[in-house]
């Protein structure tokens, strides 16, 4: 049958800030979960590629340290690993990407790669968290890239691969990337035990607004506002799987992989400019009983230079730990809003909301004495 595919997990530049380390710890735990699931799904090798010298791994994957002797190129880094592993096919994902994928999911990825010529599989064609391709050498036909989320398009356009997109679900949409994602994992019963053990203490996460929004999802008299990079699959999931009314402002899809020179322009950002930070949170709260906000779109619209630690502390709704003055004031306003506000990045508005809805219904049914379906 030949050697099974290899999985390359990317883990780098985790940062040294308090919130950054919280996320990095959970992402490494997720890497172990993904490695175990990949092997159960027929993947022969799993390698964690990292520039963090302190990463030892947990035995579920091989650690490949980057010595950084030359200017870093993600393409050359991945190509070097592809050549060394000598596998029939390769998958690449971030260490915390799609931590809810099961062995069956990885087996489906492997099956989609076998015996079909130049092919690729991804969870998201326009901004991938996972990309797999066969033959492994097809990557050599792709030019320079510095973000792995562009790989499905590049493999199609430059390597001639036929691309299959995995069905959209919580498992294929949830990425562990920010503290908001940690909050979702802390509340979801679907979180693997190894990841749950790596989560920060409950008091370190802003769980109160999440707990306040979850019952709204099951309430036909409630309304939530979701603003930011909302995809059609998430919108459809909310329409199908929640009882509340949903007000959606979808904008700047593909922000992270946007073409060079594209300046973010946001309607919600314009509202913030017009009314000012002090009134902004109140205006949002006047539109709904709860708000789920993609703050990265607002930051891009404003041309903010706030660093990752500041963005993460803002997700934690701890304005006192945000150094950037503009983001600190915005965070304080969101934390003090009369309606609960969840602040985060793209995953919060995709797999995060989907996972919260699933958990909300589990808890709602328990309150009503309804037993969950078997399995």
Description:
The chain is α/β, with parallel strands linked by helices. It folds into two domains: 6-166, Spore Coat Polysaccharide Biosynthesis Protein SpsA, Chain A (Alpha-Beta Complex); 173-366, no CATH class. 41% of the residues lie in helices and 15% in strands. It has 15 helices and eleven strands. The chain has helices at residues 18-40, 74-85, 103-113, 151-159, 170-173, 179-187, 193-198, 207-213, 232-241, 267-275, 277-287, 295-302, 308-315, 325-335, 351-367; strands at residues 6-11, 45-50, 62-65, 90-94, 119-122, 130-134, 162-165, 223-228, 245-250, 290-294, 341-344. It has a seven-stranded mixed beta sheet, sandwiched between helices. A four-stranded parallel beta sheet has the order 9-8-10-11, with helices on both faces. The longest helix has 23 residues, at 18-40.
Quickly list its features.
375 residues, alpha/beta, globular, four-stranded parallel beta sheet, Spore Coat Polysaccharide Biosynthesis Protein SpsA, Chain A, seven-stranded mixed beta sheet, 2 domains, 15% strand
